[in-house]
Amino acid sequence: MEKLQTEQKANSTTFQVSEINVSYRPKVKASERPKVSTSKEVYDILFNNWDLDKMELLEQFKILLLTRANRVIGIYEVSSGGMAGTVADPKLIFSTALKACASAIILSHNHPSGNLKPSQSDIALTNKLIAAGSLLDIAVLDHVILSSEGYYSFEDEGII
Fold it and tell me: What pTM does this model have?
């Protein structure tokens, strides 16, 4: 009898799981979204949507989510860190891209020091995310490093 009650209890908790819902309600019509085709256009969109009070204070990592036609779906802040770095979790990056039905993404982060040269860890992370994106059929088109005085594009420099 005790064994039967234990099995019944185990079976009743087996079916107590949360239902996951994903919804997508864009606030901007597809035809009104900005289209990007150059790193300068990407930089302008990112710079105009960045908290400039934090640009030289701390490092932030954001992604630009794009449609197949390179129209901007939105910008997502992946992380905000300290002066010397921040964490860019691939799970957060690609779960957001998948939820937004993005066909491509552009990686971006700022260097509070103003130095636009990518570090070895910037390059390694970019390569890791390109590989992950190819498995999910989400293209990583560029990685843009911003400062208050300009930008560095991995695509323009032939790193991607």
Answer: 0.84
